[in-house]
Amino acid sequence: MAKISVTNCTLDYPLYGVSSRSLKKMVINAATGGRIAANSKDITVVRALNEINLEASPGDRVGLWGHNGSGKTTLLRALAGIYSPSEGAIEISGSIASLIDPAMGFEQDASGHENITLRGLLHGMSRQQIESLRDDIAEFSGLGDYLDLPVRVYSSGMQMRLAFSIVTAVAADIILMDEWLSVGDAEFSAKAEKRLKNLIDNAKIIVLASHNLDLIRSVCNRVITLEHGKIVSEEFSAAQ
User: pTM of the full predicted structure?
Assistant: First the structure.
């Protein structure tokens, strides 16, 4: 069964070479709740997440809302396994589609086809599964012969199209999204929107981070507000 369980999750970033008397330290303390490590004058520790507790089960559409630096994207990345908690635990059951930054992690000197294989493996697909999906991914991306060329010659829009085509090729139990995706030109965006909606409709759990509170309330049935890395409130709605 799909499930997300976050227990007392705290995530610290060490910043080296930032003096405790510097203006940067004061800005960090004001904006993010950072603190100075007790054992060093040269290490600033920014507490990006502070004792987060979160449970999500099938049917939950969880919206994360807050100002810049509130911890929305950091929490998503922790759920995706990109960051490991400094304290506490994150347990997830079910397959995950991470749409936090779909184009991140491409091997720039590898071809589009080689990156389909690499990204597929990164998302937990078997080689057999990747090969069974390759034609669909290629066709959906609309990149044609460009898939034989190194990704470094692609525009950012082309990389996003390929990444989106790979990530959304297989239905997932849990979808993690940072803002609502807008991908490529009008023609591609239209079919991407349709595919994304189908993916979301069939997902068991969705976690969406956004600055747009109206969007979150229209998509999600739970709205969690974060400030300085802490959950400060949660409201429930009739969305979905």
Answer: 0.82
